[in-house]
Each structure stands twice: as structure tokens, then as C-alpha cells.
Amino acid sequence: ETGVTQSPTHLIKTRGQQVTLRCSSQSGHNTVSWYQQALGQGPQFIFQYYREEENGRGNFPPRFSGLQFPNYSSELNVNALELDDSALYLCASSLVPLQVRADTQYFGPGTRLTVL
Amino acid sequence: RKEVEQDPGPFNVPEGATVAFNCTYSNSASQSFFWYRQDCRKEPKLLMSVYSSGNEDGRFTAQLNRASQYISLLIRDSKLSDSATYLCVVTPFSGGYNKLIFGAGTRLAVHP
Fold first, then answer.
1. Among A27, A88, A105, B6, which residue carries the largest CB count within 10 Å?
2. Mean pLDDT over residues B40-58, rounded?
């Protein structure tokens, strides 16, 4: 167990709806990264939050947004859901923004989102 | 061209076999290299880091060739429990933050 938790475990939404996914980072970790993993693919970096600010972003549209709270937990929000948003969403926490040791990143179990 | 490319497999091998996975990456500025293991419908877990000098952890050996931008993973004496998807991962420095860039993964199925 990594100590990183995510909720909910599974979620079913319809096209056009909005969704919020949550992540609690491992104790003491101030950086949270979010990844999207489509079926048969490797995880793709969405963005990273460090001390409550977005610290980097992958190639995802603005309808993917996030927040990080003072306790370093984080939310991923997706607006105007599309069928292609169906995926496993993973969050990973780390002690530093991966500039020092990229192997100290711990993944949560993920939220499986299905968009109908 | 994908930033990290792997043979998708699946590799179907008997118990006790030796199996090798290969991976290539496109960004020569990539800084760190890893192999992750992902079981079906679970999160990825770090298997091992990869260094130019090569590193070994029990039955697993990883190798990095920076000149060829090539990473390998060798599994000796395969066990049924090794069945999983193996993800090749690199971290290119992106000016202020690092992100993990994953290959699509290679599936391994070890049978009795």
C-alpha cells in the first residue's frame, strides 16, 4: 500500500456531464500528478500540482482542470465529458516535483471513469 | 513518433523461461529511466530504476544504452506471478518539473 487514496473507485457518466475525481496524497507529500490511462495504453501525464499551484501540464484541453488543497489533497475536474474520456485516472504523489528523484512517485489505485 | 515505444506483445512463455523486453525513447535529453509493472486493472508500481551501468535485482536485470536511446529488461526463470504488463518509463526534464512518460506497455503471460 502506498498511502495514496482515490475516490470514487468507479464512475459512470454521460456525454456532456462534468466529473470530479479526488486524490489524497501520501502523508508528507506536497506534489500530486494526474495521469489518464486509456485501455491498452500507458498512462499519459495530465498535470501536476505543487503547493497548491499547477506546476506543469501535458497535452490536455482546458476542460481538464485541477485543484490542490492546503493539506495537499487534490481534485481533477473534467467538463463536457466526451466518450474518449473513458479511462483509468491515476494520481501520484511525491515529496518533491520530480526534479530530484523521479522514482519517489507513488500511485493511487485509480478511478475508472466510463462515459456513455 | 511516440516518445517511448515498446513491443506490445503479448509474450507467452513457460515457467522458467528467460524473456527480454525492449524499449526505445526519442528525447535524448531524458534524464531518468524506469520499468514499472502493472497488474490487470491495478495501478503501476515501480519495478526498478535503470542505469547506464546496468542494474540487477534478483531475477530482473535492466540496462540502458544512452547512445542508442534504448532500454531493456531481462527476466530470468519466469514465474507465474510475473504475468503482468511491463511499462517502460522515462523522465525528460521539462524546465521546472518532471513528468513520467510511459510506453504503452508489453504484456507478459507466463504459463505452467
1. A105
2. 90
CA distance A89 to A107: 10
| Cβ separation A56–B42 shorter than 8 A | no
Least CB-CB distance to A98: which of B41, B97, B102? B97
Question: What type of residue is B44?
Answer: P
Full DSSP string of B22-60: EEEES-TTEEEEEEEEE-TTS-EEEEEE--TT-EEETTE
CB pairs under 8 A between A and B: 70
Mean pLDDT, to the nearest integer, of A9-25? 97
Nearest CA to B32 out of B45, B47, B50 is that of B50
A43 vs B: CB within 8 A: yes
**Nearest-by-Cβ selection for A105 from B8, B96, B100:** B100
CA-to-CA distance for A111 and A105, rounded, in angstroms? 18
pLDDT at B92 over 90: no
How far is the CA of B84 from the CAs of B14, B61, B81, in angstroms? 14, 17, 8
